[in-house]
Write a structure and sequence with these properties.
Blueprint: H1 2-19, H2 25-52, H3 54-65, H4 69-92, H5 96-114, H6 126-140, H7 147-155
Helix pairs in contact: 2-3, 2-4, 2-6, 3-4, 4-5, 5-6
Amino acid sequence: MAKLFNTNLKFLEDMSLVFASASSEKIKSVSLLVIRLGMAFVFIWAGFGKVMDPAGFGMMLQKMAGMDPSITTGAALLIGVLELVSGIFMVFGFLTRPAAIFQIIVILGAMVMFGFDFTTGPAVWKDPTILGVAIGLLLYGSGKIGVDYLISRKMK
């Protein structure tokens, strides 16, 4: 009986690793870096597409959002450049929270423009997930592996 009890106790000790949260700042900062790099990829990719074809995205803005045709190409180019910049900021962990605010606005704008139907297509996982990640970066910032952290240390 004692052996069975010790075996079960050992199993529970091993399982505690599954349910434990990250205990070190290093793990948290590396996790935030990985999350930032994922968001950077998303926004650099999206921004690059808009910058390379602002007229194409401008047509989409005209059709989907009812924007005036005279400003859609310029608006598309501006959105694309800002997406690129916010993605680059995420790579370096520079102005992470302001970049996340911009990204939240873009994501919510896309959700409004394309609809909130999350039952079919890639929006099922993409839009709510990216929004959640952006909110997390707004709350937690860059972590210790980023320019924001270096600036905050200098300011103290």
